[in-house]
Inverse folding.
């Protein structure tokens, strides 16, 4: 399909630079075959049914953006995928100044060696020593805010908390599963009281989620792989939800992509551990989920294609036009939508 079919005009002032407080006070646009409804995130329990199950991504964002020098050259690296105990693949600004074997000084006693330069322009970095890489990043790294936020204001200490969900426990993401940023303990209590279950899985979100689609046709776009895991017990409980007539509602496109990677054609969710580079576009048959809670996405992005696959392109373009007209806040720190293809 042509990528420009997923384009729309977004006023820059609707890009949220900070989340609302409290988190569950964000607005939520409910999209069903019956039409659109303006709600708030705290209304979520009333928008679902007893027996449904929300599925969250428990990945934890690490401070994966590093600024340093190789000699006189300024180097900025954003780690996006672990390749080994001490090796990471990174998107590097000024990568042309690097050669295999070069050492980069990121300050605070943190250095990295260039282990390889890859065909897609990314760089494999190795961190020498015995100290866990996560501790090195805590010392020298910054939270990797999306470009549409980082280009408008500097990262600060507040982002260390704001850009982390209440479910975060498994280190490894370089982008937050932002749909879950709206959840609070108070909201989760209301969810449970309404008879709605919840489960967690892990998908370490990579910085590739922010890369623009440069191809003119979706068939020519290549997704970056991300590592995920659904254990056997979680898969069994999710299948039991469906067996009892409940729906599986993914909280975020990251949870959705992993569930779709793990589900078979019979709509059975299997245990999964490994990389996935699933690219969901219109025509995809959804087998792992029955609905999606997600923020508002970039024009011509893979995520705009994903929500169009779930609800229909015309429906989503109409929903986004409504959201823009009503002043919804967009992107990672913005408002939410609840997409229910069967109402």
């Amino acid at each position: 399909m042509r990528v420009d079919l997923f384009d729309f005009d977004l006023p820059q002032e609707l890009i949220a630079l900070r989340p609302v407080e409290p988190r569950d006070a964000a607005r939520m646009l409910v999209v069903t075959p019956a039409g659109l409804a303006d709600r708030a995130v705290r209304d979520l329990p009333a928008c679902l049914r007893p027996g449904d199950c929300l599925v969250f991504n428990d990945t934890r964002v690490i401070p994966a953006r590093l600024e340093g020098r190789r000699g006189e050259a300024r180097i900025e690296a954003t780690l996006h995928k672990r390749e080994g105990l001490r090796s990471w693949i990174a998107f590097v600004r000024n990568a042309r100044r690097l050669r295999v074997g070069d050492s980069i000084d990121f300050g605070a006693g943190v250095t990295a060696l260039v282990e390889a330069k890859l065909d897609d322009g990314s760089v494999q970095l190795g961190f020498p020593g015995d100290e866990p890489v996560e501790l090195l990043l805590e010392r020298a790294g910054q939270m990797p805010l999306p470009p549409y936020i980082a280009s408008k204001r500097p990262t600060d200490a507040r982002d260390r908390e704001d850009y982390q969900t209440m479910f975060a426990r498994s280190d490894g993401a370089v982008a937050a599963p932002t749909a879950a940023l709206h959840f609070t303990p108070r909201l989760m209590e209301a969810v449970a009281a309404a008879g709605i279950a919840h489960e967690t899985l892990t998908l370490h979100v990579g910085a590739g989620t922010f890369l623009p689609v440069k191809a003119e046709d979706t068939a020519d776009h290549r997704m970056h792989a991300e590592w995920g895991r659904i254990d056997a017990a979680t898969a069994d409980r999710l299948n039991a939800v469906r067996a009892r007539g409940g729906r599986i509602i993914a909280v975020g496109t990251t949870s959705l992509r992993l569930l779709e990677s793990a589900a078979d054609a019979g709509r059975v969710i299997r245990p999964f551990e490994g990389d996935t580079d699933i690219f969901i576009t219109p025509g995809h048959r959804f087998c792992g989920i029955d609905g999606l809670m997600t923020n508002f996405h970039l024009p011509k992005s893979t995520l705009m294609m994903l929500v169009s696959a779930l609800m229909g392109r015309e429906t989503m373009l109409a929903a986004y036009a409504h959201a823009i007209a009503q002043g919804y806040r967009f992107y990672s720190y913005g408002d939410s939508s609840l997409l229910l293809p069967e109402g």
